[in-house]
Amino acid sequence: MGTAFLLLSVFLACAVEAVEALTIVLAVGLTRGWRSALQGVAAGLLLLAVVVAALGPALTVLPLKALRLVVGGLLLTFGLQWLRKAILRASGYKDLRDEAAAYQREVKAAREAAASRKSLVEDWYAFTLSFKGVVLEGLEVAFIALTFGANQRDIPLAAVAAVAAVLAVCAAGVAIKAPLARVPENTMKFAVGVMLTGFGLFWGAEGAGAHWPGNDAALPLVLAYILLVAVGAVWVLKRRRAAWAN
148-152 long-range CB contacts below 8 Å, 24 or more apart? Predict the structure, then answer.
């Protein structure tokens, strides 16, 4: 049960981050040329590989109880941030994420930016934008895969889910050469927020010494409770917004 939720959580979270990174790279590559954009992607992936190689072994040597306390706290922090934004989007207090609009903004900025050459890079703007997009979104992918994998003592399994998500998104983006606007990204972010918060609460409590009834079998109940609270929060905020509108 825990393994299934781990794979699903890692896959969904990494897919969301990959969609956002792909939007940036596509906008830059199609507007200013692929050579410098792909150089930025390669440099970003190299940096991420170094980070994973450095942090992965370090996490595996920590005692399981301490690891779950630390990882649980970090996941709870990230999860609550994701869930808060998802609730605000679903209730109308925050604009929904629109990849098509984000793509057009990136295209507009790429067309207006001046070109400059530095060393082996023909277009420094394209290189740096692709690099930052890959690194910023990739760090979250690496963090999610490492924390989930280390806590379950199975980093390779979490890495497989993360790589599968990134490859699936990239393959779709390359095939259509357009932002994945039809991907239900806002719904996915809501689901990921629930899962990250649930895993963070579950593992953090275990790391602090708590014992869940039924052990891992309690995890679906924790996730269901968080989902109900989040849906309830959306309902309350929608009613409040409607009341203010009237």
Answer: 148/6, 148/9, 148/10, 148/199, 149/6, 149/10, 150/56, 150/59, 150/60, 150/62, 150/67, 150/71, 151/67, 151/68, 151/71, 151/72, 151/203, 152/2, 152/3, 152/6
Report the 10 Å Cβ neighbour count for 206.
19
Q: How many other C-beta atoms lie within 10 A of the C-beta of residue 230?
A: 20
Q: Look at residues 217, 226, 150, 233 and name the one whose alpha carbon lies nearest to residue 191.
A: 226
Question: Tokens 């609009």 label which residue?
Answer: 101
Instruction: Work out the mean pLDDT of the chain and round it to a whole number.
Output: 80
Contact status, residue 187 vs residue 154, Cβ threshold 8 Å: no
pLDDT in tens, 93-141: 887 766 666 667 777 776 766 667 777 777 788 888 889 888 888 888 8
The whole-angstrom separation of Cα 114 and Cα 123 is 9
Separation between Cα atoms, residue 242 and residue 231, nearest integer Å:
17
The closest alpha carbon to 197, from 152, 228, 169, 156, belongs to 228
Reduced to 3 states, what is the DSSP secondary structure of residue 121? strand
pLDDT value, residue 10: 82
| Cβ neighbours for 115, distance < 8 A, ≥ 6 positions apart | 32, 122, 123, 124, 125
Report the 10 Å Cβ neighbour count for 124.
17
pLDDT in tens, 152-170: 777 778 888 888 888 888 8
